[in-house]
TrEMBL record:
Quaternary structure (record): Homodimer.
Pathway(s) of this molecule: Porphyrin-containing compound metabolism; protoporphyrin-IX biosynthesis; coproporphyrinogen-III from 5-aminolevulinate: step 4/4
Protein family: Belongs to the uroporphyrinogen decarboxylase family.
Site location (Transition state stabilizer): D86
EC number: 4.1.1.37
Binding site for substrate: R37, Q38, A39, G40, R41, D86, Y161, S216, H330
Reactions accelerated catalytically: uroporphyrinogen III + 4 H(+) = coproporphyrinogen III + 4 CO2
Protein name, as recorded: Uroporphyrinogen decarboxylase
Listed CDD domains: URO-D
Length: 354
């Protein structure tokens, strides 16, 4: 592990939080809750501060990042904040020509498909993302005992956007490269692992208490392909930040068949979508890891009693786990009623109070 410039472990003021205790599989005062995509379009206060500011620009303005990151903590009383950014921010920071198109997602001007294209993926230095260090400095002051989760996109999911040139249903160009030129594929994922590790280190050095690696689209792969073509790069990222002693969370959608391997890649906490009950997920992941999840985000559109019934089922399935962080099985949907989220936090806290 490279020379860390801060002592190992999360910042002391967040050490005893319910969130970090659950990640460490220690007893908790209540089950901690946060929501993937808790900051964003479901909140009117978010839409207000984002008016007229393009998505990527908002990620580079520390005062906006700080405000947007704090909004769901103030409103919902969640147990952790997640740094407001996007998985393509480090790629933009090293000069890749890309944008985030509203209602579409990340779009890359020139897709990466040939060996000479790799030259466009240079190393990321802390100076490339000085706004991240500045925003996290401000945030940790404001958050006090509430932990801040840093995050990055995992090599496969980043590669998918870079190779396809944008969002993709079937990832056909990505898979064509993976199967057709395994050497170039491995080099591409290794480049992305270095960039991702550097970006996570910046966030941890600045004060993040935990990190989450989003491999959102890796559920498109069979286990053998994951093991051979993706796991080495994801493991490299986790290894690179192991020495900091902050929990490492790993999440993807539709990854029921990959949960064991995603834990093996080096995660301390494995995120689970709503398709696999948490007790079954625990059997697949094995001992020594906490789980995060896994209420279907669409459940929040049902009446309150139904939301509580389904959240109760998640908590029942989690009853025997070594450590459980309550979350949705994927991000908050943009048209979710924010009051339903606030009530859900209250419900989980009350039902699990010890
Ligand atoms: O609160 C939080 O969770 C932090 C914010 C966050 C964003 N993106 C902000 C955002 C996080 C954690 C991400 C990660 C991200 N970005 C992932 C992994 C998580 C997941 O959902 O699986 C992925 C795959 C992306 C790529 C991406 N960026 C997509 C698919 C989209 C949505 C496109 C759309 O408009 O529907 C984006 C844009 C984006 N990232 C928005 C936000 C708030 C919406 C843009 C806006 O508000 O104008």
């Amino acid at each position: 592990v490279s020379a860390n410039t801060r002592p190992p472990g999360p910042p002391t003021q967040t050490y005893d939080s319910a969130f970090l205790k659950a990640c460490r599989r220690e007893p908790v005062p209540h089950t901690p809750v946060w929501f993937m995509r808790q900051a964003g379009r479901s909140l009117p206060e978010y839409l207000k501060v984002r008016e007229g500011v393009p998505m990527l620009e908002s990620c580079m303005r520390p005062e906006l990042v700080t405000e947007i990151t704090l909004q769901p903590v103030r409103r919902h009383k969640v147990d952790a904040a997640i740094y407001f950014s996007d998985i393509v921010v480090p790629l933009k920071a090293i000069g890749v020509d890309l944008d985030i198109k509203p209602g579409v997602g990340p779009v890359v001007a020139e897709p990466i498909r040939r060996r000479e294209d790799l030259a466009r993926l240079r190393d990321l230095t802390p100076d490339d993302v000085a706004y991240v260090t500045e925003a996290i400095g401000a945030l940790t002051g404001e958050l006090g005992a509430t932990p801040l989760i840093g995050f990055a996109g995992a090599p496969f999911t980043l590669a998918s956007y870079l190779v396809e040139g944008g969002p993709s249903r079937n990832h056909e160009n990505t898979k064509a490269l993976m199967y057709g030129d395994p050497g170039l594929w491995a080099d591409l994922l290794d480049r992305l692992a270095d960039i991702t590790a550097a970006f996570l280190k910046v966030q941890i050095e600045a004060g993040a208490s935990a990190v989450q690696l989003f491999d959102s689209w890796v559920g498109a792969l069979a286990p053998d392909d994951y093991r051979r073509s993706v796991m080495p790069a994801s493991a490299k990222v986790f290894d690179a930040v192991a020495g900091y002693g902050v929990p490492r969370i790993h999440f993807g959608v539709g990854t029921g068949e990959l949960l064991g391997l995603m834990g093996e890649a080096g995660a301390d906490v494995v995120g689970v979508d709503w398709r696999v009950p948490l007790d079954e997920a625990a059997r697949r992941v094995g001992p020594g890891k906490a789980l995060q999840g896994n209420l279907d985000p669409a459940v929040l559109f049902a009446p309150r009693e139904a939301v509580e019934e389904q959240a109760g089922r998640v908590l029942d399935a989690a009853a025997g786990l070594e450590g459980h962080v309550f979350n949705l099985g994927h991000g908050v949907l943009p048209t979710t009623n924010p009051d339903a989220l606030t009530r859900l936090v209250e419900y989980v806290h009350t039902r699990t109070a010890r």
